[in-house]
C-alpha cells in the first residue's frame, strides 16, 4: 500500500519540478540604430552579404565582458570583419547613440569604448528601459575613422548585447540619421540599398523610415517618430516609440 501511495506523489513532484526547469529565462534584444551600427547597416542593405544578421540585428547577444563586435559568440562573426567596407558616419566630438529595444530587460549598465579606452558608462542599477534609449557621449579627443563598441550589460543574467558603430570623428558636426549617405562608401556597392517608400505606402520590414514618414498597416495610418530600419516584430501597432497613429 505504501508503494502505491508514495510513487504517485513522487511522480507529481517530478512533473512540477520539470515544469519550472523547462521555462526559459526572459530574453532582451536591442541594437544601436543611429548612428547606424554594423548590424543596422546590414539590415538596411547598406552593406551586402552579411548573413542572417540581416534579419536579426537586435540579437547580438553573448556573455558579458567581451570587446568584440559580435560579443565573441558563435554567431554573427561577420561583424568582426574590418575589411567589409563598413560605412563611417561623420560626427563631431559629441555623439548621441540611439538604441531601439525589441525586448526590454533589467539593465546593469551601458558602456562605450574605442579600443581599450572606455569613453562612458551609464549605470542603470537594474532599471528596465523603455522601447528606446539614448546616450550622449564625448569622443575623448579621438579623431578620424574609429570604431565604437557599445555594450548593453543585463542585470539579472550573465549576458550582454553588443553593437559596433563606425565613425569619422571630425568629419562633420552632429550625428546624422542612418539615411544620410556615408562619407566612406562600402568597397563593394550594396546590392540591396535601403528603400524609403512614398508617404502613405504600406509598412514593410527591411525598409528605412525617417521621422514624418507615413504608412498604412492593418487598415490604419501611422506617422514615423524616430529614424529606424523596420524589422519583423516592429509593426506600427507594436512600437509606439517608433510610430504614432495618425
Alpha-carbon distance between the two ends? 70 Å
Question: Main β-sheet: number of strands, strand sense, barrel status?
Answer: 6 strands, mixed
Order of helices and strands: HEHEEEEEEEEEEEEEE
Structural class, from secondary structure content?
mainly beta
Structural commentary:
The protein is mainly β and 246 residues long. Helices cover 11% and strands 34% of the residues. The strands form 4 sheets. Strands 2, 3, 5, 6, 8 and 9 form a 6-stranded mixed beta sheet that branches. Strand 8 and strand 9 form a beta hairpin.
Key attributes of the depicted protein:
globular; disordered N terminus; four-stranded mixed sheet; mainly beta; 246 residues
Topology overview:
Layout: H1 2-22, E1 29-34, H2 38-44, E2 61-63, E3 89-91, E4 94-103, E5 107-114, E6 117-123, E7 132-138, E8 144-154, E9 159-169, E10 201-202, E11 208-209, E12 214-217, E13 220-224, E14 228-229, E15 243-245
Brief description of this entry?
The chain is 11% helix and 34% strand. The protein is mostly beta strands and 246 residues long. The longest helix has 21 residues, at 2-22.
